[in-house]
């Protein structure tokens, strides 16, 4: 599409990549370069436009997606600055889903390119156009070629280098634009200065640049036969033709253009903006790709937040049409459209209208959840929306003051609505409120938000493990309950045989009474009494895998009752189980750990320390250079497993797990558990 034919919409970019690669700095640079701000803020000075939440400022890292806006050469843009921390990937995921294109920011570090693998995979799975921006080129000493090769190993799509750096031997001072065949010197906080050809250097195209340009054209020709023919016949394609290919191939997620720069010094930022301006598809193209219904106005919620004093804000991208005060969405009247992006354009933050492609907040809009596509009368599920990753870290939470219990539940439900990768659960057995997420930092931030926004004092503890107990041998137990007090007496007498069952056998009851020695009508009471005392066995945990066989007993025609038999049965269990060599059972999980292969042996050593049984390891299917390690691991060892896996694997590793079975736990480990249970203790964790 040529610029003239383009319908003016606001375009939206998500900026993603590893933590500390310079995304927030790049966004600040974009704001400066486009005149949206007059002075550069710095992450370390806590003065950037993005990262303005208290949680982000204290940590000097992005803790949630932040939309910013600017106008560049007459085009309106919203940029979603995303957190890079592994814990906080959910916001980045949601941002990428609604962006017209994604800028992946990378450190100029070969070793860290592997961290891009999950990101590239996600972008390709969803056919999202993306470019790679290799940042911090001011600190690079090696050739950009090696960086590119390392990044290419992580991407299924060809990476197409758009610029090559030029330097003075020790520093990179500028770049050659391989399409325009022009060279530039970087200028601090100013547009780069074009290097003019001279009589001694008639072309700015060095031999390296010529080769790199040929490579670029060859990669493009893989997607176009006409271009291929031209190259074979040594015909130089015209510059606009090359731009056309780049635009089309980016939109189709066929190639990944690679740009270089140093955000902190404003290097390469205008170049990046220009490339985006020419090559990023419009909202309508993206809406078609996402299957957003055409016709009337359509918007999609991609993030929900709760703001103090304001309440619920649903961040939406307007896919079709314009949205005005008084319009209907999902059957509700839209009355409060707010500015979502920084820097805020008006004092009141209240807007009356939002253009196609724009990102705005609907205030107190009660229809739809994150991902929902809103049209005039419906809030529909999107055609495709990634499910949040399964949680990897859990803490038990409680309000410091009992009176705040209800308030805490409500606050956490809202925090979970804000962040779909958080889960709130309730452990019936231990009566704990459990908050689960992607890691310790994730939960710390979530709880900080809950404390700040909802004015709560919250305690956290390590969640209790759902231990069980069983018995190792059987016993025959006689129990009699007899009481003679005043009028009506109580009498019941039973003999039961208590026996272990194989693992997974549960609790079973066998009625082996013959000749009515225990009358039929009392037998349910006996069974109930026996079961009562399996709730908490001699070690303090629920009893499993036991059969109770009632085979004999006595009764009294007047004094026997359901109550008496139930009591006798309880006595039989309490006394009987204690003689059956009770033994603790601990839950074991089936765990698959995914890491780059360089870290496999270290992870294996670490999980062995956690009493894991290694079942095997293999190459991770479809992931070059990654392994999967399959283990069985006790649940009690898994609480902070993700932290160690990440620590070993430079943050890249992760795992999936599912409950597998219960297994006997004996010795000192078991003694400790039983002791702690008696004292009703669980160790505290920090969150
Ligand atoms: N040397 C250098 N440092 C940079 C550059 N861009 C960002 N940084 C630094 O990298 C750190 C992380 O930057 P930030 O923008 O917060 O990264 P983010 O986590 O990706 O948002 C900060 O200390 C920045 O000053 C750059 O171009 N060159
Ligand atoms: Mg950031």
CATH topology of the largest domain: Rossmann fold
Low confidence ranges: 1-5, 683-687
Physical arrangement of strands within the biggest beta sheet: 2-3-1-4-5-11-6
Q: Note the beta-strand portion.
A: 25-35%
Which ions and ligands are bound to the chains?
guanosine-5'-diphosphate, magnesium ion
- Number of domain units: 5
Strand-pairing-aware structural class: alpha+beta
Tally the helices: what do you get? Answer: 17
How do you describe this structure in short?
The chain is an alpha+beta fold. 27% of the residues lie in helices and 30% in strands.
What characteristics describe this protein?
single chain; 687 residues; alpha+beta; Rossmann fold; Elongation Factor Tu (Ef-tu), domain 3; Alpha-Beta Plaits; 7-stranded mixed beta sheet; 7-stranded antiparallel beta sheet; 17 helices; 30% strand; elongated; disordered N terminus; disordered C terminus; binds guanosine-5'-diphosphate; binds magnesium ion
């Amino acid at each position: 599409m040529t610029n003239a034919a383009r319908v003016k919409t606001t375009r939206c970019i998500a900026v993603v990549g590893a933590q500390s690669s310079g995304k927030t700095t790049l966004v600040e640079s974009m704001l400066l370069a486009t005149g949206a701000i007059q002075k550069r803020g710095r992450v370390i000075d806590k003065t950037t436009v993005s990262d303005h939440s208290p949680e982000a400022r204290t940590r000097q890292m992005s803790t949630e997606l932040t939309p910013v806006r600017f106008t560049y050469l007459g085009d309106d843009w919203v940029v979603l600055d995303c957190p890079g921390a592994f814990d906080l990937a959910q916001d980045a995921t949601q941002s990428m889903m609604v962006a017209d294109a994604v800028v992946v920011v990378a450190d100029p570090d070969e070793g860290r390119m592997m961290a891009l693998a999950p990101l590239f995979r996600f972008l390709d799975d969803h056919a999202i156009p993306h470019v790679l921006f290799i940042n911090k080129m001011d600190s690079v000493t090696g050739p950009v070629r090696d960086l590119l090769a390392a990044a290419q190993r992580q991407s299924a799509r060809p990476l197409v280098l758009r610029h090559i750096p030029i330097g003075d031997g020790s520093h990179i001072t500028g770049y050659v634009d391989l399409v325009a065949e022009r060279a530039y010197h970087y200028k601090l906080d100013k547009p780069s200065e074009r290097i003019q050809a001279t009589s001694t250097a008639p072309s700015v195209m060095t031999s390296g640049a010529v080769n790199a340009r040929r490579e670029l054209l060859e990669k493009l020709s893989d997607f176009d036969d006409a271009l291929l023919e031209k190259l074979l016949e040594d015909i130089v394609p015209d510059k606009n033709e090359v731009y056309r290919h780049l635009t089309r191939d980016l939109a189709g997620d066929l190639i990944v253009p690679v740009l270089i720069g140093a955000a902190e010094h404003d290097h390469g930022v205008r170049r990046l903006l220009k490339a985006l301006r020419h090559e990023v598809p419009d909202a309508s193209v993206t809406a078609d790709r996402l299957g957003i219904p055409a016709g009337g106005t359509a918007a999609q919620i991609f993030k929900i937040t709760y703001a103090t004093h304001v309440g619920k804000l649903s961040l939406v991208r307007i896919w079709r049409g314009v949205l005005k005060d008084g319009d209907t969405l999902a059957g509700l009247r839209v009355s409060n459209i707010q500015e979502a992006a920084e820097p805020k354009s008006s004092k009141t933050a209240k807007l009356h209208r939002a253009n196609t492609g724009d990102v705005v907040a609907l205030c107190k809009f009660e229809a739809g959840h994150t991902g929902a596509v809103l049209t005039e009368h419906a809030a529909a599920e999107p055609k495709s929306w990634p499910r949040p990753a399964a949680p990897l870290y859990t803490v038990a939470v409680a309000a410091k003051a009992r009176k705040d219990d209800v308030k805490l539940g409500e606050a956490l439900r809202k925090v979970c609505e804000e962040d779909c990768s958080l889960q709130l659960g309730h452990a019936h057995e231990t009566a704990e409120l459990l908050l689960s997420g992607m890691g310790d930092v994730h939960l710390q931030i979530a709880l900080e938000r809950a404390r700040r926004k909802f004015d709560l004092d919250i305690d956290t503890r390590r969640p209790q493990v759902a231990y069980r107990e069983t018995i190792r041998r059987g016993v025959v137990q006689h129990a009699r309950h007899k009481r003679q007090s005043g009028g009506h007496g109580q009498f019941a007498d039973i003999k039961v045989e208590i026996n272990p069952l194989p693992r997974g056998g549960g609790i079973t009851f066998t009625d082996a009474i013959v000749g009515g020695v225990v009358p039929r009508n009392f037998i349910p009471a006996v069974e109930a009494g026996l079961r009562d005392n399996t709730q908490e066995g001699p070690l303090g945990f629920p009893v499993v895998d036991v059969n109770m066989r009632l085979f004999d007993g006595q009764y009294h025609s007047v004094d026997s009752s359901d109550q008496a038999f139930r009591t006798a049965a309880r006595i039989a269990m309490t006394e009987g189980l204690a003689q059956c060599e009770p033994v603790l059972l601990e839950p074991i999980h089936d765990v698959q750990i995914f890491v780059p292969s360089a870290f496999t042996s270290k992870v294996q050593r670490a999980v062995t320390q956690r009493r894991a049984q290694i079942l095997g390891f293999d190459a991770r299917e479809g992931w070059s250079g990654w392994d999967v390690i399959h283990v069985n691991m006790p649940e009690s060892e898994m609480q902070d497993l993700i932290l160690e896996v990440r620590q070993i694997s430079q943050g890249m590793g992760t795992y999936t797990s599912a409950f597998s079975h219960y297994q006997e736990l004996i010795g000192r480990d078991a003694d400790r558990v039983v002791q702690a249970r008696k004292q009703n203790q669980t160790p505290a964790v920090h969150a």
